[in-house]
Design brief:
The protein is mainly β and 790 residues long. The strands form 6 sheets. The chain has a 33-stranded parallel beta sheet that branches. Helix 2 runs antiparallel to helix 5. The chain is elongated.
Length: 790
């Protein structure tokens, strides 16, 4: 609400009343005092416009002479009311004492400032602010003339505009004792409350966009000191000197920089105080100085992660040269330090101080730091600064493309884009790219290295790489998802492929295959007709289906290679992969491999009550040297299968697998929801010249097995001279090991089954349920040290 006025009309509210002198006027002491008050008020207004703060000196330190006392150095300050405060020499003040009995006069006082008391003096724990405040003190006497009607013959000669030290309790923070970490955190948190860090951050997140105007003299509460001025506990006439934390009569710490500010004027526009003005700059300087003061007095803070003792870090600060800055800055540390010329350090520091401080516990604040080593030597001090983005864009910075061997490039952003899109052997893929163009560009290349940047890639159709002689794919944890197909990444043709660190999520299962699988079983990762395949650390998943139509990883050679031409063999190495399989689908499928090593993979059904059809399968028309070891398969109807089929139409099929080692695997069979006529087993081995099946574990559900008989290990087909089945553990199946040779390839055979253990087997075999062998072959098999337990 405002009063009405007219142009040119004098407005006398709070006008300075200057005494008018003229000849013949009768002057009294009151007139002269009024004139003094008018001059003081005018001076105070000039001071208030200049701003409050400390001009120089007035440092507060422990006295070192007695407990509960501090030493205040001489100096000059100005209150926000415009009054000056000067301490002419150093003083030691005892903080724990009874109230002062000194009487100060309030008559003829400094007009802008009302008389203040001596402050709060208490013994006990607490956090206090020590201030310098004005006080008027009468001094000396002067005679009174006899013409005065008063009987008093003398009166005060002068009034000293003196200063006093006051101690004000802060009630917003609780005492924390003397634990070093707790004290360090208290000091840090109260300092940043004084700086108004949180309200200022909030204001920066929501800048004022309306046309609201506020009175220029109105205080916008930000920090602790501002709030104390608003509630009247801290006068505009007094200047804070230091925070003091006391336990009993002992001073635990003195923090001057939390409340000390250089003389700085308030901004003319109050709503923009968090953004502009000298006071904001003074606060930034105080944040920097407070950090340096605290770590200098408590260097143990730098010996561990900052989060252990601090809640805030300034946007810039110096660290001793030997500081382990990676440990101190933690997750906000850069990858490496950068040398910085000492002459450039002031500009870097000044630029960083314009940024907000960093709240360490706030996860939404993803601010990081840069670390500079001054002087370019290992012994130079360290400067950390908040790593803020520059306003100037990379497109605006010129670059010599000819010198950089980047034809047609003339700015930094274009150079970065060109380099990211690839060198002669390196192609970087990012979400949202035109992958059809990438496929066309890379097809039929001799050597290609593809790097996926981390992120989510939503594909309309599978990403395909064709006929690349040597292909290396580095995933960096990127997630590729194709909702329209069970296939996500397809590699066709070429000499070799290495795939590492990708995540692949297949979509709709298409029974009969899609996108030219040639055999109707698409894998989230499909590699076809590529001679050397290495897959490591890949995560692949399929969706549910009513019929078998998809698998997690599918590697195949459409036509098996001639055993006499090793350069055409399929060599497969799959390790450390995580495969999640939908109902009735398959995990890992490898067909027609001459060498296959599958180890340390984890294959599991997405839903244990809706089992996958097959876990790991190595099959086809032939196989050479096969190793399947240390894999885990959970909740499959058919756990691990290594078998080949003869398609020649002969009455007696020939051996198709040369060597097999099936070892240290763990399989859990799940039979929920299947039909009685469906095949089911933990491990299956068929048509092998030399087989070693050892130290595997197969687990079944006895209740399911009683309804649907389950074989823990089934070995069937044509076998060569060596079949060793050792040290396996079968639990909860109907038959532990079923051995069903159809014929043998050599007259002399070593077929041994030893050291196997069965537990809780529920079959009905006459000779026991652990090992079941057809009568025809029983005498050829060596049985020893096998144990069947209840």
């Amino acid at each position: 609400m405002s009063d009405d006025t007219l142009l040119g009309t004098p407005i006398t509210d709070e006008a300075i009343a200057a005494v008018h002198f003229f000849n013949g006027r009768l002057l009294t002491s009151r007139d002269l005092s009024r004139e003094q008050d008018a001059r003081r008020t005018a001076d105070a207004r000039v001071g208030a416009a200049t701003g409050g703060g400390i001009a120089w000196g007035l440092e507060v330190n422990a006295s070192g002479t007695s407990a509960g006392s501090v030493r205040v150095d001489p100096g000059l300050a100005m209150g926000l009311a415009g009054n000056t405060l000067k301490l002419a020499r150093p003083f030691t003040v005892t903080l724990v004492q009874p109230p002062s009995t000194t009487t100060a006069s309030s008559d003829g006082g400094f007009t802008p400032c009302k008389p203040l008391g001596p402050g709060t003096y208490v013994a006990g724990d607490g956090l206090f602010v020590l201030t310098l405040a004005p006080i008027d003190q009468p001094h000396d006497l002067a005679p009174v003339l006899a013409i005065d009607n008063s009987r008093t013959r003398c009166n005060t000669d002068v009034t000293l505009e003196a200063v006093q030290l006051r101690l004000l309790r802060i009630n917003d923070f609780n005492a924390t004792g003397t634990d070093a970490r707790a004290v360090a955190r208290l000091r840090n948190e109260v300092a940043y409350d004084c700086f108004g860090a949180k309200p200022r951050q909030s204001a920066h997140g929501q800048p004022l966009t309306s046309a609201v105007r506020m009175a220029s003299q109105q205080v916008m509460p930000l920090g602790l000191i501002d709030r104390m001025r608003v509630d009247g506990s801290l006068s505009l006439c007094e200047v804070p000197l230091a925070l003091v934390y006391m336990v009993g009569d002992a001073v635990v710490f003195i923090d001057g920089q939390s409340v000390r500010r250089r003389v700085a004027a308030a901004g003319a526009t109050v709503p923009w105080a968090p953004w502009l003005g000298e006071r904001l700059q003074a606060t930034a300087e105080a944040q920097f100085a407070q950090f340096q003061e605290q770590v200098a007095e408590t260097p143990a803070v730098l010996a561990e992660a900052a989060t252990q003792s601090l809640s805030w870090l300034p946007p810039a600060g110096f660290l001793p040269s030997a500081t382990d800055w990676r440990r101190f800055l933690g997750a906000r540390a850069p990858a490496r330090e950068v040398p910085l010329a000492a002459g450039d350090a002031p500009e870097v520091l000044a630029s960083a101080l314009a940024c907000d401080p960093v709240q360490l516990a706030q996860t939404s604040d993803d601010a990081r730091f840069r670390v500079y080593r001054l002087g370019g030597t290992a012994t130079g001090p360290l400067l950390f600064v908040r790593d803020s983005r520059r306003i100037r864009h990379a497109e605006q910075i010129w670059l010599d493309g000819v010198r950089a061997d980047l034809p047609g490039v003339s700015d930094v952003q274009s150079a970065i884009d060109t380099l990211r899109n690839g060198t002669c052997l390196h192609t970087v893929l990012r979400p949202g790219m035109d992958f059809a163009r990438v496929e066309r560009t890379l097809a039929d290349q001799s050597v290609v290295s593809v790097c996926f940047e981390p992120g989510l890639y939503e594909l309309d159709k599978p990403l395909s790489f064709t006929r690349i002689d040597r292909l290396h794919i580095q995933g960096h944890g990127a997630l590729l998802r194709c909702a329209n197909s069970e296939q996500v990444l397809v590699v066709v043709g070429g000499g070799s492929v290495d795939i590492d660190g990708l995540q692949l999520e297949g979509g709709k299962v298409t029974v009969g295959g899609s996108f030219n699988t040639a055999h109707g079983l698409g894998g989230a990762l499909t590699v076809r007709d590529t001679r050397v395949v290495r897959i490591r650390g890949v995560s692949a998943s399929t969706r549910d289906g009513n019929e078998l139509g998809a698998c997690g990883i599918h590697v195949r050679l459409n036509e098996p290679a001639d055993t006499e031409t090793p350069e055409r063999w399929l060599r497969v190495h799959i390790s450390d992969c995580e495969v999640r399989v939908g109902a009735r689908q398959s995990g890992i499928l490898c067909l027609n491999a001459d060498e296959a090593h599958l180890h340390d993979n984890h294959v599991r059904a997405i839903d244990a009550q809706r089992p996958m059809q097959r876990g790991i399968t190595v099959a086809g028309q032939r196989a050479g040297d096969i190793q399947v070891a240390r894999n885990q398969v959970w909740d499959a109807i058919e756990g691990i299968t290594v078998a080949t089929s003869d398609t020649s139409g002969k009455d007696s099929p020939t051996l198709q697998t040369d060597r097999l080692e099936l070892a240290h695997n763990r399989v859990r069979v799940q039979l929920a929801g299947i039909e009685r006529n469906e095949s089911r087993y933990g491990l299956f081995v068929g048509n092998v010249a030399s087989a070693r099946v050892q130290r595997n574990e197969v687990h079944g559900d006895p209740e399911q097995t009683a309804e649907l008989p389950l074989h823990g290990i089934r070995i069937a087909g044509v076998f060569g001279p060596q079949v060793l089945v050792r040290d396996n553990r079968l639990q909860g199946t109907a038959i532990g090991i079923r051995f069903q040779p159809s014929s043998y390839a050599h007259e002399q055979t070593l077929w041994v089954m030893e050291g196997n253990v069965g537990e809780g087997l529920v079959g009905q075999e006459q000779r026991g349920n652990l090992i079941a062998i057809d009568e025809k072959w029983f005498k050829r098999v060596i049985l020893r040290d096998n144990v069947e337990l209840p």
